[in-house]
Amino acid sequence: MKVPIEVFAPEPGIRAMIEQNRGAVERLANVEKIAFADGSLAKQAGARSTARFDVHVVYERKIDAAAERERLKKELEKLEKEFASNQRQLSNEQFLAKAPQKVVEGLRRREQELIGLRVKIKSQLDELG
């Protein structure tokens, strides 16, 4: 499988040499295409640097939308159950009166986390259609 790469070559001569020999470089490196970046790629995950240029493989993960939707629905269902349990505990006056303050604070923090996670998963599901 061929993948695209990005190259950052601050020296004009190096960039020109790669551009002039683009076809040969693509065949020899077994890459789909070469794109030139305007800035250093050294901080990109998986990038390699030499004294004269940086190279970064552009890896796009293909996902199975149906499988990802199913996984997200299961995760959302699990979060909904935990949220319902959390709400039952927080709405139980006897529990709140007897439970240590640390436990109640933990439940309130988790409630906020669960709300944020639900929003995030719902937006991911919307993106998948």
Can you walk through the features of this model?
The radius of gyration is 25 Å and the shape is elongated. The model has no long low-confidence stretch (mean pLDDT 89). The chain is α+β, with helices and mostly antiparallel strands and 129 residues long. The chain has helices spanning 12-20, 22-29, 65-91, 93-98, 101-128, and strands at residues 5-8, 34-36, 48-49, 54-57. Helix content is 60%, strand content 10%. Strands 2-1-4-3 form a 4-stranded mixed beta sheet, with no helix packed on it.
Overall CATH architecture of the largest domain: Orthogonal Bundle
Helix content: 55-70%
Any idea what the radius of gyration is? 25 Å
Give me the side-by-side strand order of the main sheet: 2-1-4-3
Poorly predicted ranges (pLDDT <50, ≥5 residues)? none
CATH topology of the largest domain: Helix Hairpins
C-alpha termini separation: 28 Å
The backbone outline, from C-alpha atoms, is: elongated
User: How many β strands by DSSP?
Assistant: 4
- What percent of residues are in strands? 5-15%
